[in-house]
Amino acid sequence: MTPEQRLLKAAELSEATKALALAGLGARHPELAEVALRRRIVAMRARWAGGHPRQWPGAPSHSR
Question: 21 with 41: CB under 8 angstroms?
Fold first, then answer.
C-alpha cells in the first residue's frame, strides 16, 4: 500500500468512526438534536486526548 493509499484509508476509517459514534450516541439519546450530539462527541474526543472539553448542559462537572 502506498503512503497515499494509507492516508486515504485512514481518512475513510476516521469518517466511519465518527459516523458510528454519532449513530450510537443518537440511539442512546434520541431526544437530542444532531448539533448537540456532535458537541458531545467533540467533548468526548477532547477528554480522550487529555484536553479540557467544554461541558454540555446537564453534564457532571469534573474538577481536577
Answer: yes
In a domain, 64, yes or no: no
* CA atoms of 61 and 26, how far apart (whole Å): 22
pTM, two decimal places: 0.62
Residue entry with cell 467533540 = 42
Counting the structural domains of the chain, the total is 1
C-alpha cell of residue 22: 454519532
- Contact (Cβ atoms closer than 8 angstroms) between residue 53 and residue 43: yes
Residue 4 pLDDT: 96
